[in-house]
Every structure is written in structure tokens, then in C-alpha cells.
Specification:
Elements: E1 2-11, E2 14-23, E3 28-32, H1 39-47, E4 54-59, E5 62-63, E6 74-77, H2 89-99, H3 104-117, H4 133-146, E7 151-155, H5 163-178, E8 183-188, H6 191-197, E9 200-205, E10 208-214, H7 215-220, H8 225-230, E11 235-245, E12 248-253, E13 256-260, E14 269-274, E15 279-281, E16 288-301, E17 304-310, E18 314-320, H9 321-326, E19 334-340, E20 345-348
Length: 349
């Protein structure tokens, strides 16, 4: 559906460097990375707002590198909504239809359907300056899909919305992707949005494509330490394989020894990645690794408690707040952590 073929693009001092990625029809594809990484530049290149210095951009199997934005059949929604302030909601949504030459009655019928579909019929005659952030976002989305694009590009569409409005908007996006078959490419900083919506994803850091693939694989089995850190794996530990035992590798991490599932031979330097919810405090079990330590800190965040434990190296475990209280976990309390060997992702050098 969308292909970037060795695309390089210079904007001032920023360089998007030799990026190749493929977005399939029906994907909900996320482009993630730190601020200034080049995420929005990629989105705008797909839309036709930037022309690459090198490489090609293909949409639907055809090269569009030199094609102007209005001929690409792509909808684009920015974080700041970019609504026309002098136009009512009805006129904003119907703008693209009028540009396409749709007649007045047909355009009004289409706009009326979109007003109902996005729950904004009561805003029809209002102007953008009188709308909340969530209302503006729904109007912007309705305007983008009014012209029936098969590709929708979204630049951090949820970042300015309150949690309740975010949930409603996520539902709208899921419906457009799953029910209407719209291919969506979204830029975000939010790992939560990626986990809820993504089918595939790319991680961009300093203008370079670090990793691309199935969202579950990138989130849980990244290929590099940089990506592991960015996607939010809480425990990233460097160590050395000291021996092999029963198909597992025994890894020494500064005195802490853990078994992990990997083919790495003895003597190889590796990085272990362990998500906090894969570490279970409490009574030792048959999970492959039982590690003794002392609680350093407990931080409650809503229903979840983050427990930091000194085991020679610091490990972070996550559990329900209720479970942490039932175990009486507090700074200075001894605790045993259980970690399944198969839950440890190993990055080999």
C-alpha cells in the first residue's frame, strides 16, 4: 500500500537517512521515536509535502515521488487539527468534497452522514474557535475521511486530548481501520496507543530506521538495546554467558545469575530484556529463576504498583496495587523474585 524505498531527505540540519519501509493494505501502522527523530517528516513525505533527495515513494504500487499532495488520495490530520477558522463545522467537513466538484445536495448528504457517524451533529453550525480539543479532533478526522481516502495519516492525534476523549477517539480509529478497512499510519510518543491499536510499527531514532515489523515482536523482542529502551522494557541488563545448562544459557549480570532461553555460547556478551510484569514477587515457584533481594521503593500508579528491588543489580517488578499491599512490600523488606527463563528476551551482540 505504501513503500519508502531508500528515502533520504534533508531539512535544514536534519537528515532522514536511507529509510526503507513497507506498509500493507489494512495495516494500522505506527511510526514511533523520540522528539526530533523524523517521524512527522516521514508522514509528510508520504503525503507529498516533502520531496526526497534520494529514493522513491510508492502508493498502491505506483511511484508518486513527484506527485503533488492533492493527487495522492491521502488524508492527513495534524496534531493542531488545522481547521479553517472562518468556516463552520459543516463547511470544514465539506471542503474537500466541494474541491472534488461534488454537487451541493450530494455534499450535504455526505456531510450529514459524517456528522452522525462521529457524534458531532450538534456542532454543525459552530466555528472552530468555539470547540474543545476533542471536538476539533473529531471534525478534523471527519474532514479527512469525507473524500474517502484509502490511506489516513495521523500526526499525534491523541496527545492533546483528555483520557475520556482519548478513549472515544480510539474507538473511532479502530472502527475506521477494522470495519472500513482504512489503512492508517500514525505518529505517536505513546506506547499505550501502540499497544492498543498497532498491527505493525517502525522505530525511528535520529533520522534512522532502527527496526520495523509486527508490533508484538518489536515491543517484546526488539533487536537492539536502543529500541528496547524506547519501547519501554523496564529491565535491560548487560551480561556474559558463563555456561549452558539444559538448553538454557546461564548469564552473569554483575554477580546476579539468570537462566535465559538463547543459543548464545559461553563467553558471549548479551543483553537481557525483562518486562516488569514478567517478574513475580512472592513465594519462589517453578519459573526458572528465583532471585533474593530487598525492596528499595514502591510506587503506586493507579491500580499498578512498581516495585524496585536490589538484587545486587536493581530489578523492577510490576503487580497490582492490591497484591503489593497483601505482600506487605515496602522499602527494606526482603523479597524473592521469580522470573521465567522463557520470558527473558536476549539480544546478542
Amino acid at each position: 500500500m505504501i513503500e519508502l524505498d531508500h528515502v533520504s531527505l534533508t531539512l535544514g540540519s536534519f537528515l532522514l537517512d536511507d529509510v526503507s519501509l513497507t506498509i500493507n493494505r489494512g495495516d494500522y501502522y505506527f511510526i514511533v521515536g523520540p522528539s526530533g527523530a523524523g517521524k512527522t517528516v516521514i508522514l509528510e513525505a508520504i503525503a507529498g509535502l516533502h520531496r526526497p533527495d534520494q529514493g522513491r515513494i510508492l502508493l498502491r504500487g505506483e511511484e508518486v515521488t513527484s506527485l503533488p499532495p492533492e493527487k495522492r488520495g491521502v488524508g492527513l490530520v495534524y496534531q493542531d487539527f488545522s481547521l479553517f477558522p472562518h468556516m463552520s463545522v459543516i463547511d470544514n467537513i465539506g471542503y474537500g468534497l466541494r474541491v472534488q466538484g461534488m454537487g451541493g445536495s450530494d455534499a450535504r448528504r455526505e456531510v450529514a452522514g459524517l456528522l452522525d457517524e462521529f457524534g458531532i451533529a450538534h456542532l454543525a453550525n459552530r466555528y472552530p474557535g468555539t470547540l474543545s480539543g476533542g471536538e476539533k479532533q473529531r471534525v478534523a478526522l471527519a474532514r479527512a475521511v469525507a473524500v474517502k481516502p484509502d490511506i489516513l495519516l495521523l500526526d499525534e492525534p491523541l496527545s492533546a486530548l483528555d483520557p475520556v476523549t482519548q478513549e472515544r477517539f480510539i474507538h473511532d480509529l479502530q472502527r475506521l481501520n477494522r470495519e472500513d478497512g482504512l489503512t492508517i499510519v500514525q505518529v505517536t510518543h505513546s506506547r499505550r496507543e501502540v499497544r492498543l491499536l498497532a498491527t505493525r510499527m517502525a522505530v525511528i531514532i535520529d533520522g534512522c530506521l532502527m527496526e520495523e515489523g509486527d508490533a508484538g515482536v518489536v515491543l517484546n523482542a526488539p533487536r537492539s538495546r536502543e529500541v528496547a529502551s524506547f519501547v519501554g522494557i523496564e529491565n535491560i541488563l548487560d551480561g556474559v554467558v558463563v555456561k549452558r545448562a539444559g538448553g538454557h544459557a546461564v548469564v552473569d549480570i554483575g554477580g546476579l545469575v539468570l537462566e535465559a532461553v538463547t543459543d548464545a555460547p559461553a563467553g558471549e556478551a548479551v543483553t537481557l530484556c525483562i518486562r516488569s510484569d514478567d517478574i513475580a514477587p512472592g513465594t519462589p515457584g517453578d519459573l526458572g529463576n528465583s532471585v533474593a533481594g530487598v525492596v528499595v521503593r514502591v510506587v503506586e500508579n493507579g491500580p499498578i504498583a512498581e516495585v524496585r528491588v536490589d538484587c545486587g543489580v536493581e530489578l523492577i517488578a510490576a503487580m497490582t496495587r492490591r497484591a503489593a499491599r497483601d505482600l506487605c512490600l515496602a522499602p527494606g523488606i526482603p523479597v524473592t523474585l521469580s522470573i521465567e527463563a522463557a520470558a527473558i528476551h536476549v539480544i546478542r551482540e
